[in-house]
Amino acid sequence: MSENPAQNPRPAQLDDRSPWVVDTRELGRRAGLSRELRRSAPVPVSLGVPGVLEIREGEPVELDLMLESVVEGVLVTGTAAAVATGECSRCLDPVTENVEADLTELFAYPGSATEETTDEDEIPRLVDDRIDLEPTVRDAVVLALPLAPLCREDCPGLCIECGVKWADLEPGHGHEKIDPRWAALVERFDENAGEKPAHGSGEQA
Questions:
Q1: Kind of pairing, strands 47-49 and 34-42?
Q2: Number of Cα atoms under 13 Å in the Cβ half of residue 84
Q3: Residue 164 pLDDT exceeds 60
Q4: pLDDT at residue 81 in the model
């Protein structure tokens, strides 16, 4: 049975001008050969949650990687580091986070057993001896972003009554609380206190 090209589309060509694309031809598909890769690449779109913590579009990601030729493809290991900005999840002050993600990814050779037995969304492929690092780095960096960024680990947050930062308030700061069971009575008392006493009009004995 002939192979249906619609089910096995040829991967799109990679742009050598992109800082995310790496040429691996010097490894020669000889298992055991390796090379170091250090470069800076800007993120094409913002990563993270806007207003919470994100690496903004165009911010550089510093790559410190090792590329190693193995039997089934090119194994990429190392780190990706970037700076994220957002708000403290407790006091809402601006925060800056240095984010570092560990990377371990196999890029499969065309025609390898790995390529034939896995989907591309499981293991990425080499295209004309080139690899696109952007999807791998993007996924790793997003997972490395803290879910609840803090300006400092012991940030006390905000007073839930007045919304002022606890760090800016005087020691012993507090708010008088009225038991809700007495609230209606206090309100009625305040109303009565504002009323003028009525003058009697009856005859005196």
A1: unpaired
A2: 31
A3: no
A4: 98
Residue reference for tokens 């969304």? 121
Q: What is the largest CA-CA distance in the chain?
A: 123
Lowest mean pLDDT among 11-15, 17-21, 158-162, 182-186: 182-186
Of 41, 57, 8, the C-alpha closest to 133 is 41
Taking the model in full, what pTM does it have?
A: 0.71
Task: Write the DSSP assignment of the chain as a string of letters.
Answer: ----TTTSPPPPPP-TTSTTEEE-GGGTT-TT-EEEEEEEEE-SS-EEETTTEEE-TT-EEEEEEEEEEETTEEEEEEEEEEEEEEE-TTT--EEEEEEEEEEEEEEEPTTSHHHHHS-TTTS-B-BTTEEE-HHHHHHHHHHHS-SS--SSTT---B-TTT--BGGGSPTT-------HHHHHHHHHHHHHHTSPPPPP-SPP-
| The residue to which tokens 């900005």 are assigned | 85
pLDDT digits (tens, 9 = 90+) for 92-106: 889 999 999 999 999
Residue with tokens 């560990």: 102
The predicted model gives 37-45 an average pLDDT of 96
- Count of other CB atoms within 10 angstroms of residue 25: 9
Exposure string over 156-190, b if 16+ CB within 10 A, otherwise e: eebeeeeeebeeeeeeeeeeeeeeeeeeeeeeeee
**Amino acid letter for position 28:** G
Cα–Cα distance list, 155 to 10, 90, 99, 152 (Å): 52, 7, 20, 5
